[in-house]
Design goal:
Layout: H1 8-22, H2 25-37, H3 48-53, H4 59-71, H5 86-97, H6 105-115, H7 120-129, H8 135-161
Helix pairs in contact: 1-8, 5-6, 7-8
Length: 162
């Protein structure tokens, strides 16, 4: 078994673990509030609509909702955030990967290409460089690297199947 700590993603996970051990729950909660909620609005808006159009609740959200309906995925009750929030989109991708949703591999790849790849890496990069990010800088690095790896893996599969 190889030691994955000498890969970019392995090093990023180690840095995230060190950051988690270095900050209190209260400090992380405060940073989250400042980054994503803010007084009027947070430093970053983790929504596909915002990243792709500059506005919230736009066409990317409508396209996502249409695909969710096609796959029988419903918005979780009690969650006020629009479905194009990055956490929700990642949760859907996790559901595909764990076979919680009945989709083909091609549909999973198409979902990633339509709803994750065009913007999530940019969001995570912005998180890495956000002025208010301390703990979340490491989250940004892990997320950016993961999106890069997934993009590359799907691209390799597409080339092999072409």
């Amino acid at each position: 078994m190889s030691d994955n700590s000498d890969t970019p993603l392995g090093r990023a996970h180690i840095a995230l673990a060190q950051a988690a051990a270095s900050y209190s729950h209260e400090a992380i909660h405060r940073e989250y509030s400042e980054l994503f909620i803010g007084v009027g609005r947070g430093e970053l808006l983790p929504y596909a609509s915002y990243y792709l159009t500059g506005f919230l609740n736009e066409r990317p959200l409508a396209r996502l909702r249409a695909d969710m309906a096609r796959f029988g995925i419903e918005r979780a009750e009690g969650h006020p955030e629009p479905e194009d929030h990055l956490a929700s989109v990642c949760e859907m991708m996790s559901g595909f990967a764990c076979n919680h949703f009945a989709v083909s591999h091609d549909e999973e790849q198409d979902f990633f290409r339509r709803h994750v790849e065009p913007w999530a890496g940019r969001f995570f990069s912005d998180l890495e460089h956000a002025k208010g990010a301390k703990f979340y800088r490491s989250v940004g690095t892990v997320g950016r690297l993961f999106i890069e790896i997934e993009s590359e893996a799907f691209a390799m599969e597409a080339r092999q199947n072409a």
